Amino acid sequence: MTFIHDDFLLQSEAARRLYHSYAAPQPILDFHCHLSPKLIAENRPFRDLTEICLEGDHYKWRAMRANGIPERFCTGDAEPYEKFLAWARTVPHTLRNPLYHWTHLELVRYFDIHELLNETTAPAIWRKANERLQSKELTPQGILKKFRVTAACTTEDPVTTLEFHARIEREGDSVRVCPAFRPDGALRTTDAQAFNHWTDQLSACTSIKIDTLSDFLKALRTRHQTFHEHGCRLSDHGLNQCFAEPCSDHVAESVFAAVRSGESVAPGESAKLNSYLMLFFGRLDAEKGWTMQLHLGARRNLNSRMLASLGPDTGYDAMGDWSQAAHLSAYLDHMDKENTLPKMILFNVNPVDNYLFATIAGCFQSGKTAGNVQFGSGWWFLDQKEGMEMQLNALSNCGLLSRFVGMVTDSRSFLSYPRHEYFRRVLCNLLGDEMEKGLLPNDEALVGAMVEGICFHNATEYLALPAAVNRVPATR
Question: CATH for 139-463?
Answer without folding.
Answer: 3.20.20.140
